[in-house]
């Protein structure tokens, strides 16, 4: 098995376990009892969805790092694709904007998440929201078919981000666009700090430097690339103190180094 495939299998196992847990448990504990830690906390990067139209609490597992649908310029009748759709949270928010004449497709590679999302859609009686099992590096959607693509804290988990953004480009219609939230880095985190932060929040392992992330998007062919929203992710002192000396901790807090949640917009020409 290749290194990339191993990463995907670990992600599938982790998020498959998460799918069976309530939101409160996801935010306060490991995804399963084999991960060797007891303080994983996804809430340090998550943003509050409850204020958004179409919000469905049962579909919100608190795993995102932004509000991409809020910035996605979705219009009534649009075809919207959510990459890494989880339990359907962003899909249902998007559906509230596209209306009955629109269409929303969620793609996730974890069977348990697809089952959970389909169950949520069934409870709501939505007939224009569907969920497809698939890999973001090989999206099961035809060329030039989406008006808008959204994704929330998922691209950082994909081993080949260039391929994933290339697939995003492929499925968008000419003139279509995406709004994607993700975790990026500014400056170098020490290996120890990066490891501790990943154990704590589960979303730092695959994060790129901010400019490298934006370059991947540009290299995929996208134009008008711009950061719509940006905020620093505050890593708790208890994690910093385990990875840094007191002097390093003081320097870290003074400097603009660390992890950031960004929401990026880009268009397909």
Q: What does this molecule look like?
A:
- The chain has 269 residues and is of the alpha/beta class.
- It has one domain: 3-Layer(aba) Sandwich (Rossmann fold).
- It has nine helices and eight strands.
- Strands 1, 2, 3, 4, 5, 6, 7 and 8 form an eight-stranded mixed sheet that branches.
- β1, α3 and β2 form a beta-alpha-beta unit.
- α6 packs antiparallel against α8.
- The longest helix has 16 residues.
- The radius of gyration is 18 Å and the shape is globular.
- The chain starts with a helix and ends with a strand.
Question: What's the short story on this structure?
Answer:
By secondary structure, the protein is an alpha/beta fold. 35% of the residues lie in helices and 22% in strands. Helix 6 runs antiparallel to helix 8.
Key attributes of the depicted protein:
single chain; about 270 residues; alpha/beta; Rossmann fold; 8 strands; about 20% strand; globular
Number of helices: 9
CATH architecture classification? 3-Layer(aba) Sandwich
Number of strands: 8
- Residue share in β-strands: 15-25%
Proportion in helices: 25-40%
Shape: globular
Could you tell me the radius of gyration in angstroms? 18 Å
Poorly predicted regions? 26-41
Give a short account of the largest sheet. Answer: 8 strands, mixed
In the residues, how many domains can be counted? 1
């Amino acid at each position: 098995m290749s290194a990339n495939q191993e990463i995907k299998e670990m992600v599938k196992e982790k998020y498959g376990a998460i799918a069976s847990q309530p939101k409160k448990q996801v935010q306060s504990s490991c995804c399963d009892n084999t991960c060797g830690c007891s303080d994983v906390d996804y809430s340090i990067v998550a943003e509050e969805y409850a204020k958004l139209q179409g919000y469905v609490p049962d579909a919100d597992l608190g795993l995102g790092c932004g509000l991409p649908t809020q910035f996605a310029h979705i219009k009534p009748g649009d075809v919207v694709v959510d990459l890494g759709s989880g339990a359907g949270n962003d899909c249902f928010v998007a559906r509230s904007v596209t209306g009955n004449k629109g269409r929303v497709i969620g793609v996730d590679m974890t069977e348990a998440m697809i089952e959970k999302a389909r169950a949520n859609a069934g409870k709501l009686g939505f007939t224009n929201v569907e969920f497809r099992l698939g890999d973001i590096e090989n999206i099961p959607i035809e060329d030039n078919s989406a008006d808008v693509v959204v994704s929330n804290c998922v691209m950082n988990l994909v081993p080949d981000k260039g391929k994933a953004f290339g697939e995003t480009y492929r499925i968008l219609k000419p003139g279509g666009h995406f709004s994607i939230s993700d975790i990026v880095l500014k400056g170098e985190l020490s290996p120890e700090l990066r490891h501790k932060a990943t154990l704590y929040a589960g979303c730092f392992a695959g994060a790129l430097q901010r400019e490298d992330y934006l370059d991947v998007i540009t290299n995929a062919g996208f134009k008008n690339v711009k950061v719509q929203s940006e905020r620093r992710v505050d890593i708790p002192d208890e994690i910093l103190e385990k990875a840094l000396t007191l002097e390093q901790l003081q320097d870290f807090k003074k400097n603009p180094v660390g992890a950031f949640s960004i929401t990026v917009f880009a268009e397909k020409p």
